[in-house]
Task: structure prediction
Amino acid sequence: MMDEITNRVENSNLIQVSLDDYYPKEERVLFDLKDVLHQGLVLIEKDLRTFVKQNDWSVYQDKYVGIFCSADAIVPLWAFMLVASKIEPFAKKVVMGNKVELEKTIFNDIVSSIDYTIFKDKSVIVKGCGKYPIPEAAFVDFTVKLQNYAKNILFGEACSAVPLFKKEK
Result:
């Protein structure tokens, strides 16, 4: 008679956490100020103000938006601020930066909003591989906040987890 196969991970006190579970599905878009510069190089205030008044900002409804300038031009800070002020009423989040900076900001907000008390005195495995492009900084931020609650923190999969933190007794 064969013994029944037991999943020891499921029967353990380990909590497996995937940051994929927190990944917001809303669209990410970028607004490039280069497109409103004269010849892609020079900001003309009057032209920008006309554009800002006439543009349909509702296209950014419920989206994460990064505002940046891909041109090698000197763009004053107020131009970014003006565009952001028009996008903000529609967008889920507006940041000054490219897609990488946008993702970092999104996950900074997410990691800061997690209720870590559910991990109080638990052993937690933070899963590293997922289907979404989670910024590496989010894993560091999550670990720093989690160690204030968890008994142990490991990284990877249960079969080959790397120990990161163990609360002192």
